[in-house]
Amino acid sequence: MKKSDIVISILSIILMCAFPAIFLYTRNVGEAELYEIFMPILVLLFIAAVVFIIIYLILRNVVNTTFCTLIFILIFSNFAIVEDIFKSIFNNLKYWHVLEILLFIFINLVIFIYKKRSSNKLIQANKVFCIIFGGLIIFNLILAIPNIVKKLGAESNNASIEYITQKDEETTFPNFYYILLDEYSSFSSIKKYYSYDNSQFYDFLKDLNFNVSLDSHNDSIDTITITTNILNLDYVISDGDGLLHAEKMKYRENPPMFDLMFKNGYEINNYSNLVSWDGKYGSIPDSYDSVFGDFMKMVLDNTALYPLLVAKDEMVDRQNTLILLDCLKQTYESSVTPVFTYAHLAIPHAPFVFDEEGNMTNFSELNDWKNKSCYLGQYIFTTNRIEEIVRNIVTKDPDSIIVLQSDHSARWTQDENGNEIVLNEDARSVLNAVYYRGEELDIDGLTNVNTMRCIFSRLFSLNLPEVEVNF
Ligand SMILES: [Zn+2]
């Protein structure tokens, strides 16, 4: 056995195991962090090592064993794609059928190589794998360099605040509860696409002296774009600006909304891990960590392990949403310093993990936009829980301010053929309701950003005129 054969064997396995994570990293430089690639690579390397040892005990030849291991990893790491191809040919195949067929083929390959024993051609094959995967890794890394450089150069964008504090010694500001419901459809959109009349919620809010705008639209249907602009009280980013996700996130560090509250003496109570204040991202107390994380899940989703991932992180998110809903029951009427609460709830956004009553749904319906009862169930659950929360705040802390907004309406609703049917304008239509110490406030037709400017103008006696937005 030549030394170079062993080197090529080890290298080809490492490169093939590293490729999926590196490929996905280079495609998602803006969202993913470099350290996230190591765990998926280690998982694949571990599996490769186990397979290698088992096959080596049979073949007793490093080159032949390497070849078989490479074939195994190639199929294993692209299992979801292979399964889709099988299923497109044979309609009724299930995951287990495809797994059995592929294992059968693989075992026969090992037997064939065992009988042939010669390894001359397989040395060449291993070299080819080495060159292909090495080349693919280098090629993808080169393509990603501009975005990696851009990301490294992204700097904090906390705009310098020019808002002047009007606070004097006698002024006491009310507690401020900001609640954003992700993907909560406006009254008009839920009626149009789900034939659901939500006027009971409208009447409920009006009875509590909420000001409700029935015609508010935002600038985008992208959560990060919309909420970043709300936090900045201005249209600082847009969908077409070409900024990386990481660059957009820089606008969410010490954002003007938080800064304005802080400068007016508020204590910041940040429940959102998408906004940072004073160097710390917000969090939900006693919440659970995700099992796999977004990047690991993305890599493993293509492998034969994907059935193991089903709904684990979704269940963690479900649990954390319930904890956050409980947190929002807390009110601060007896606090000496006014409290600013910022909460971004992940419901009724998919995955659909709550039915109308708050029970767990079927795993098969987690992202089912065709069956309208999935979204609608989670929507009604959200409405009911929010009613409890705001009724509690208004009762205990009637001098407070409560802002209830959604970033966009349901976006991906489908007809019976699976076609998306929501018009962009209807997706941009939002819930926008403000309880202002029981007083009237004219927010009719205002965007979320301009609604916040209107509230802060009144609260801090500032002159924050409406800003223009291009829809
Ligand atoms: Zn959203």
Descriptive overview:
This protein has 471 residues and is of the alpha/beta class. The chain folds into two domains: 151 residues, no CATH class; 284 residues, Alkaline Phosphatase, subunit A, CATH 3.40.720.10. It is built from 17 helices and eight strands. Strands 2-8-7-1-6-3 form a six-stranded mixed β-sheet, sandwiched between helices. Strand 4 and strand 5 form a beta hairpin. The radius of gyration is 27 Å and the shape is elongated. Bound molecules: zinc ion. Zinc ion binds next to loops. The site of zinc ion has 6 residues, from loops.
Number of helices: 17
Query: How many domains make up the coordinates?
Result: 2
Uncertain regions: pLDDT < 50 for 5+ in a row?
none
How many β-strand stretches? Answer: 8
Helix content: 40-55%
* CA-based gyration radius: 27 Å
- CATH architectural group of the largest domain: 3-Layer(aba) Sandwich
Search tags:
single chain, 471 residues, alpha/beta, Alkaline Phosphatase, subunit A, six-stranded mixed β-sheet, 51% helix, elongated, binds zinc ion
Write the layout of secondary structure elements.
Layout: H1 3-27, H2 38-59, H3 62-77, H4 79-89, H5 95-116, H6 120-153, E1 176-181, H7 187-194, H8 199-207, E2 211-217, H9 223-232, H10 245-249, H11 256-263, E3 267-270, E4 276-277, E5 280-281, H12 294-300, H13 306-309, H14 312-327, E6 339-345, H15 372-396, E7 401-406, H16 424-427, E8 429-436, H17 448-459
Parallel strand pairs: 1-6, 1-7, 3-6
Antiparallel strand pairs: 2-8, 4-5, 7-8
Helix pairs in contact: 1-2, 1-3, 1-6, 1-12, 2-3, 3-5, 3-6, 9-17
Bound molecules: zinc ion.
